[in-house]
Each structure stands twice: as C-alpha cells, then as structure tokens.
Amino acid sequence: MKKVAFIITLAFICTHTSIYGQLSIEDCYKKAQTNYPLVKQYGLIEQSKDYNLSNADKGYLPQVSFSAKATYQSAITKLPITLPNVSIKGVNKDQYQSVVEVNQNVWDGGIIRNQKKITEASSAVDKQKLDVDMYAINDRVNQIFFGILLLDEQIKQNVLLQDELKRSYNQVSSYVTNGIANQADLDAVKVNQLSTAQRKVELEATRKAYMEMLAAMIGEPIKENDHLIKPSTAESSSLQTTINRPELQLFEAQNKLFETQKSIIDAKNMPKLGVFVQGGYGNPGLNMLKNEFTPYYIAGARLTWNFGSLYTKKDDKKLLDNNQQNIAVQKETFLFNTNLKMTQQSNEIDKIKQLMRDDDEIIRLRTNIKKASEVKVEHGTLSVTDLLRDINSEDQAKQSKVLHEIQLLISIYNYKNSTNN
Q1: Angle, to 10 degrees, between the axis of helix 111-178 and the axis of helix 40-57?
Q2: SS3 category, 227
C-alpha cells in the first residue's frame, strides 16, 4: 500500500513539474547565450586560428620552386685566342635552362614563432570582442524577465480588485433595493468592473508577447502556465563593487597583441640563414664552353640581412606604443563611466528601499479609509462615487508596492550586470 502511494505521489510530482515548468533568471542567461546566433562565431574564430597556426608551421618545411627560361642573346662568350689545329666552338646564342630549387629555412630571426604568437593574440582579441557582444544579451534578458514578473504581479492585483469590485457591486445592489443608493451608483460600480476587466485583457496580452520574446531569446517554447522564479531582494546586501566585465579582458587582450607585434618588428631586423639545393638542366650547363644540354646541381648556404626595415623600426614601435596608450585611455574611460553608473544604480536601490518602508503602512491606511467609506455609504452619508475613489486609491497603493518590489529587483540586477558579479 505504501509503495502504491509512493508511486502515485511520484507520478503526480513528475506530471506537475512537466506541466508547470520553472525558469530562473540565471537559466535564462545561460540559454539565451547558447541560443544566440552570434555564439557560432566562437567556433569560426577557433577554426581560423588553427588554419593560421598550421600555415605558419609550414614555414619550417622545405620550400620548392621551379623555373624555366629560353633566351636569345646578341653576343656570346668567346676565347680571345686561337690555337693551331684546334677548333674551339662557342655556345649558341639561343640558350635554355630549367631549374628546381629546394630551400630549407634554418633560422628566420624568430618571425614564424612571433607570427604564431600574433595569431594566438589576435584570436584572443576576437573572442573577447565576442564576449562583450554576448554579455549585452543579459541586459535584454533582464528587461523581458522582470517585465513579465511585473505583469504577473499586476494581473494578480487586478484579480483582487475585480473581487473587491464584485463585492462592492453586490453591496450597492442591496443598497439600491433598500433605497440607500440608486441605479446610477450601481452603474458607476459596473463601469469600474468593466474597466478593470479590460485592463486585465491588456495585461495578459502584453504578458503573452513578453513570454514569446523570452521564448525566442532562450530558444525554447514556454507554456502559458510556466512560472518564472522571482529572485530574492536579499541579494542586494551582497552587491560587490569589483568590476569583472568582459570589456576589461578585451583591453588586456588588445594590449598583449600590441606587445606581441613589437616582437615581430625586432625579428624582421634579424639576419636569416638557410640552405638550398638547385638541380638544373640546360644548354649550356655550368660549363659555358660545352655546347649541349647537360644536367647540373648547386648546393650551398645563404645568409641574408635586410637593413631597410631599420629605418622604420623606431617609428613602428612608437606607433604600437601610441595604440597601447589609446587602449589605456579607453579602459580608464570605461571604468569611469561604469563606476558612475554603479553610483547611480546604488542610489536608485537605496531610494526604492526607502519608498518600500512606507508601502505597507500606506496600504493599511488606505484599507482603513476604504472600510470607513463603506460604513458611510451604508449609512447614506457618503456617495458610491467617493467609495469607488477610495477603492481605487487602495488598489493604487498595492500597485505601487508591487512596482517598487520589481523596480528594486531590476535595479539590483542592473547593478550586478554593471559589475558582472
């Protein structure tokens, strides 16, 4: 019997969970990040980095080249002597040559090594730029998520107001029967009921639109009865002032890229050493006096040192220093603006908290006023119009409390979004 009860309970829980799903704002952050089309660029950036690194590594492989030429020249080399009974035939004026050359880099001054470092640094910059763009999604999620929470609270309050107006309608209806009120008073209550019902239709339509927007953001269907978990305002006590925004990592990655680019400037001014082998076939070959097609080969080492880049080395480094200073200014400006925004948001949180201290008292007083008005209407000393005004004032006080609670949550999460904590 106990096993049967346990199975029934478990089935109920599973069914209940599947019908009424729950979503926290953290869940929405993660799902929105995964679903956003821009996330595909992470894979593309990684692939581009791998291709560039692979191409750089190929610089260590032997480089093979082939060339061929045919020429006709106006004069040829001749010996300025004659020997008795000896005929020295010169080479033809038309000459032919084909050469295959294999070059092997021995030391390039560190160019390939630094090219790979630049590839890594550039990829890191691209990823951090993408992180910055992706982080902006959180702010959009905040607006939609808390917008839905506010609408949920407003719909709840609207239902309570409709119940209150229904009770008032029944009371005024009895007053009309007893001659205390007239039909116009009853019509006034009915108008308020209809207006409140219309307001509920507007709120539910807006909520449906917001839910569809949230579903599109996270890439999952959301049922009408799915529940959004309302965060606790207690988290405001743990707000931190440390800024961990992805923009800071972007500035750091850009600065590292410029430092790496300085290294390749030095590498370009270093000598290069390599070995080579040439294999050729032509007429003439290496023996210029042999007038026939012959094969030949040449092997050796080659040292090159280009001094032309020394002219611009100093200015190239100054240009990179200037770029780094520009990044430092951007970082300083970002921190200044972020700290300013955090100050404004912190003050907004404190202001809302102060407003919320009096919300319950205002509601209590408005409720007392409404109840007193009901008694006065019952005794014929107050009009139904005045009663409706007090009912609406009580509802407005409750709406203000709901609004302040959601505004506080929005302000807290805006602050957390500014710091990424």
Answers
A1: 180
A2: strand
Q: Per-domain residue ranges for the chain? A: 22-61+108-270+305-419
Contact 352, 404 (CB under 8 A): yes
What's the CA gap between 180 and 381, in Å, rounded? 10
Q: How many CA atoms lie within 13 A of 383 on its CB side?
A: 8
- 203's tokens: 């709120």
* CATH homologous superfamily, domain 22-61+108-270+305-419: Outer membrane efflux proteins (OEP) (1.20.1600.10)
pTM equals 0.79
Q: Burial level of 413, CB count in 10 A (0-12/13-18/19+)?
A: buried
Ordered per-residue pLDDT tens for the chain, 421 residues: 444 443 344 444 444 433 456 889 999 999 999 999 888 888 998 999 898 888 888 888 899 999 999 999 888 777 666 666 666 677 788 889 999 999 998 888 888 888 999 999 999 999 999 999 999 999 999 999 999 999 999 999 999 999 999 999 998 898 888 888 889 989 999 999 999 999 999 999 999 999 999 999 999 998 877 789 998 876 555 678 899 999 999 999 999 999 999 888 888 888 889 999 999 999 888 887 778 889 999 999 998 888 877 777 888 889 999 999 999 999 999 999 999 999 999 999 999 999 999 999 999 999 999 999 989 988 888 888 898 999 999 999 999 999 999 999 999 999 999 999 8
Q: Are 271 and 109 in contact (CB under 8 A)?
A: yes
Q: How far is Cα 369 from Cα 350, in angstroms, rounded to an integer? A: 30
CA 58 to CA 266: how far, in whole Å?
21
Distances (CA, A) of 49 to 4, 95, 122, 247: 59, 47, 8, 21
Element (H, E) at 279: strand 272-283
d(CA 278, CA 103) in angstroms, rounded, equals 9
Enclosing H/E stretch for 157: helix 111-178
Task: Tell me how far apart the alpha carbons of residues 325 and 335 are, in angstroms, rounded to a whole number.
Answer: 15
Token pair listed for 22:
């729950």
Kindly list the distances between the CA atom of residue 173 and the CA atoms of 164, 179, 375, 378, 383, in Å, as whole numbers in the listed order: 14, 10, 15, 11, 14
Q: Which two tokens stand for residue 147?
A: 């917008």
Contact 384, 188 (CB under 8 A): yes
DSSP symbols for 229-275: PPPPGGGGGG-------HHHHHHHHHHHHHHHHHHHHHHHTS-EEEE
